[in-house]
Automatic annotation (TrEMBL):
Species name: Streptomyces fagopyri
Listed GO biological process terms: pyrimidine nucleobase catabolic process
GO molecular function (one): riboflavin reductase (NADPH) activity
Gene3D superfamilies: Electron Transport, Fmn-binding Protein, Chain A
Family annotation (InterPro entries): Flavin_Rdtase-like_dom, NADH-dep_flavin_reductase, Split_barrel_FMN-bd
Keywords: Oxidoreductase
Designated name of the protein: Flavin reductase
Highest taxon above the source species: Bacteria
Domain Flavin reductase like residue range list: 26-166
Presence of keyword Oxidoreductase: yes
Amino acid sequence: MTAPAHHDAPPSPVTPDSADLLRDTLRRHAAGVTVITFPGPAGFTATSFTSVSLRPALVSFYVGVDASSAPAARRAERFAVHVLGAADAGLASRFARSGVDRFAGVPWRAQADGLPVLDGVTAWLSARITLRQTVGDHLLVVGEIDAGATAAETSALVHHNGSFASAHPLA
């Protein structure tokens, strides 16, 4: 037997304003912050990165279909995802800006195919793209991991309530 759920307010009906409800709800959901890069170089800040499968090792992210990095996501064969630590808020802000050279002044190295790998991040993975699918107003990109590295553990950079924050263990 399960107990009935108790809520402070009745649930909102699904309406044309559902996008606003979703946006408002997601502001309350803390998400890890990453930078996704492609050969070019091109890249953007993302909170949509997630694991998909361990065998094979698959990861995914979403990018808006009208985002400045969407064309790179559509044509690339590979991408790199960079997991950011609390000290990387400036890097996250830089790659979130439009109309700037996001790589200017950022230390990085190119893999053989030109894929940029950012220096000094908490961890990075590169992946070969195995699936692209338009889902609503976003492009889903799935890739199979082919390389990566981790550095010393640090507090994670998260995005919560419209701001960057640091995640710390509770105990």
